[in-house]
Each structure stands twice: as structure tokens, then as C-alpha cells.
Design brief:
Layout lengths: L1 H18 L7 E5 L8 H6 L3 H4 L9 E4 L4 H7 L4 E7 L1 E2 L5 E2 L2 H14 L2 E5 L23 E4 L11 E4 L1 H4 L15 H14 L2 H19 L6 E7 L2 E6 L4 H10 L4 E2 L4 E4 L7 H17 L2
Parallel strand pairs: 1-2, 1-3, 3-6, 6-7
Antiparallel strand pairs: 4-5, 7-8, 9-10, 10-12, 11-12
Length: about 290
């Protein structure tokens, strides 16, 4: 799962600095409105109290900065800071893409301060944005990247990737699970990776993303206040909560969900076609008329 991948990233960060005899460096800066999972470590990294309620106290060592605000990150750094953990697009936070200056600034800041940059690509990775990794859109390389969701094509799998010097901190026996890396899921993931890495496939994702954007931008509902998109990860922000609209869409045969209270999220399969997008747009248009 994505949560397990992020747990691995947190463990790897701490083991890396432990092996370097930098025992004070264990803290991780993540972001307000971020989402990294529901297991204890990933939940502590998640900057939304609504997910943490009932599971306190949270694991120590996590602080939250403001997204797309580099000075806020700088202010959060102290002698214990080991890494910054960030989503390229805040999914659960409302489909909020990172500014290019922000993400590149984080890379530079981590390099200057001797910290690791962890990018959570559980939602954005494996072709979702028209690149295999969304971070490629920004021209940066993380020290650690996490993947899940689309990596298995419907089969559950999570992955934690790291540059060589960091990955070396995980010696045999320092991390693992009973079914981790089992032959079935890794064979599926290898095939998914092969398909999604194909340039023609990624170009088609870009094209379908542009087509979906065109349809969503053509909606004239006055309650829509903003539209945000990268590839086939898109969101419509309304001036009110969208929970009822989600239910109306479902009853009419369109599966969507909310990202935060006011954002309708669209993350169709990467194999979606024009006919399916046209059909979804027609349902959404009718649902908006029925939504009071």
C-alpha cells in the first residue's frame, strides 16, 4: 500500500542518518493538508487532524509547514530535521499542484542543509500526470520516492525507491514484510511499468487529460470557483461542500469523490477514452442541474 511505502521512506530516512552517526537527525517536515497514509508513521506525517483524531498521541518527530511556501519550510528546520516529505500534487488536500519554484526550492534547500527530499507519488506516479513520475514535470530528482495505487494495475503493491547512497542503509533484515515483493504482485508491477513507461502511452494520457480539461472547463455552473489539473488528475473547486453532488453523480452512474470538502476530484483510469469522457461529462452536467 501507499501507507506502507511511506512508512518505509520514514524508516529509511532515520536509518540513513543513524548509519552516518547523525543521531539527532530524525525529524521530518511535511505539510498542512498533506496525506501520506493511515498507519501510525504515515499518519503522523499527514498534516490533517481529522485523520489523526482518536489515534493520539502521534509519533514524535513530525512538523508541518505551509504548502507552496518555502519560507515556512525554512522556519521549520532545526538541528533534528532529516528530511522534507512532500506531494507533487496534494490529492486529499484538494488537487493542489506544487509551484515549480517551490518544489525546486525544496530540492535546493535540502541540498544546502544536508536533508533528504522524499516525494510521495502514491497518487501522482505511474503515468497519472502524463509523465511516469510527476516530479519529472519539475525537472528534479528526489532522494526517496514512494509509489503504489496504479503501480499494480488493481493488484495491491507499494514501493519505496531511493538513490543508491540512501538505499544502502536498508541492509538485509532491516526492513520487510511477509508478502512484500512476492512474485505475483511484482510480476504485475513489472508489466504495468513496462506499459506505462512507453512514450506513446504517456502521450495518450496527456491527450486524454487535455480532453477531460476541455470538458470540465466548458461547464458554466456559477458555483465553480476554480479548476486545477495535471494530466488525468483534475479537480473542480466549488463555493460549497460537494458531498451531495458526489452522491448524485454516483446514482447516475458516475464514480467521483471529493478532495477536501469543496473539491470534486477526477482521476479516471489511464486507459479512459473520448467516449467515456463525453459520457462522464454529460452525467456531470445533469447532476449539476439536479444539485440544489
Amino acid at each position: 500500500s501507499g501507507a506502507e511505502a511511506n512508512e518505509a521512506a520514514i524508516k529509511l530516512t532515520r536509518k540513513y542518518f543513524h548509519d552516518r552517526q547523525e543521531h539527532k537527525k530524525y525529524g521530518i517536515i511535511s505539510f498542512i493538508n498533506s496525506f501520506h497514509g493511515r498507519t501510525l508513521g504515515s499518519l503522523a506525517a499527514t498534516g490533517q487532524t481529522k485523520y489523526q483524531q482518536g489515534f493520539e498521541p502521534m509519533n514524535p518527530g513530525f512538523v508541518y509547514a505551509r504548502y507552496n511556501d518555502l519560507p515556512s519550510v525554512e522556519a521549520a528546520i532545526d538541528e533534528n530535521t532529516a528530511a522534507v516529505m512532500v506531494e507533487v500534487i496534494q490529492g486529499e488536500g484538494g488537487i493542489i499542484p506544487a509551484d515549480i519554484s517551490f518544489l525546486r526550492g525544496l530540492r535546493q534547500l535540502c541540498d544546502q542543509k544536508g536533508m533528504l527530499l522524499i516525494i510521495d507519488e502514491v497518487q501522482t506516479g505511474v503515468g497519472r500526470t502524463g509523465k511516469f513520475l510527476a516530479s519529472q514535470l519539475y525537472g528534479i530528482q528526489p532522494d526517496i520516492v514512494t509509489l503504489a495505487k496504479g503501480l499494480g494495475g488493481g493488484i495491491p503493491i507499494g514501493a519505496c525507491l531511493a538513490v543508491d547512497k540512501v538505499a544502502a542503509a536498508f541492509e538485509p533484515g532491516s526492513h520487510g514484510s511477509t508478502f512484500g515483493g512476492n512474485p505475483l504482485v511484482t510480476a504485475v508491477a513489472a508489466r504495468v511499468t513496462e506499459i506505462v513507461s512507453d512514450e506513446a502511452f504517456l502521450k495518450r494520457v496527456e491527450a486524454m487529460g487535455a480532453f477531460l480539461s476541455e470538458k470540465l472547463l466548458s461547464l458554466s455552473d456559477p458555483r465553480i470557483v476554480q479548476f486545477r489539473a495535471r494530466g488525468l488528475m483534475q479537480g473542480l473547486e466549488f463555493d460549497r461542500e460537494v458531498k451531495e453532488l458526489v452522491g448524485i453523480c454516483l446514482k447516475k452512474g458516475l464514480l467521483v469523490t471529493n478532495a477536501g470538502p469543496n473539491v470534486l476530484r477526477f482521476v479516471p483510469p489511464l486507459t479512459v477514452n473520448e467516449i467515456e469522457i463525453n459520457g462522464a461529462a454529460a452525467i456531470l452536467e445533469q447532476a449539476l442541474l439536479d444539485w440544489q
